[in-house]
Amino acid sequence: MKDNFREQRLAQKDLKRGRVLAVLPTEVLVGYEKEKIYCTLRGVLKKRESRDKNLIIVGDFVLFEGNTIEEICDRFSLLSRQEHLTRRKQQLIAANIDQVLITVSVNEPHLKPSLIDRYLIATYKGDMEPVIVINKVDITTNQEELKEITKLYEALGIPVIHTSVVTGEGLDQLKEQMRNVASVFSGQSGVGKSSLINAMTGLDLTVGEVVAKTNKGSHTTSSASLIPLDCGGFCIDTPGIRSFGVWDIKREDLVAHFSEITEVAGGCHFPNCTHTHEPKCAVREAVERGELSLIRFESYLRLLTETVSPSF
User: Fold this and answer.
1) What are the chain's domains?
2) Higher pLDDT, 162 or 216
3) Residues near 99 by Cβ (< 8 Å), separated by ≥ 6?
4) Across 290-310, average pLDDT
């Protein structure tokens, strides 16, 4: 009843429709036509019960009047992760995005295939298309690992682009991939997301360095922002992460996100085989024969151990 009353009240107002460019500590920067307007959320929005840690995110379309956001429009896609501390909330990263540019490096920092697989699951769950960007290829010392990872994910039908801001390799290909669509750069801290965006846009975003002691990247982007592209479309630079928990996925549904494992699983002796310990497991036998990727299988096992759906 309250929702119907609110809808009627909103319908009577002369509201403008804008897009969230940035979410600041106390305000939301909204783009409307050629204007940038600092807004706040109407109090009734903050009182809504939700499993989300944050109510509004970069890329959201909103209805606003003056400097007040009256409503957050329905999202057609959403990138999110499990809130790191409690694991009981969904942390929103970006909304209404066409593709996720999963950015990694082989050396600095070291490549984490399991992190790629987590992003892939979150991308598909959020109704977006994945693209893997392997950056810093100019300093890649392990060429065999680079070739193996590229071949592995291309075989799954996922575009893989090799890039280097230093040499310019792959930058034209990446720009073409981003043309006229909304993209979000996501990945581990220190992989060079801000450097790539600088190369794509001509901006001068702060660029961090990899911390020598831990080989982990330092955080340079403190909050996400929506950036227009000369070639059309938008891109979002997100804060780097060191862990990425997939939100709201049940253990029994996990294997469906590993299509190559699903194809082989029909040959397992037990129909509910988890591929961890059961006898006559066709999946483990295929891994042992080298017919299934050990890298992907280990990612599956790690996720199977860690994945817990929140209970309320």
Assistant:
1) 2-74 (2.40.50.140), 93-237 (3.40.50.300), 251-306 (1.10.40.50)
2) 162
3) 128, 129, 130, 131, 177, 181, 182, 183, 184
4) 83
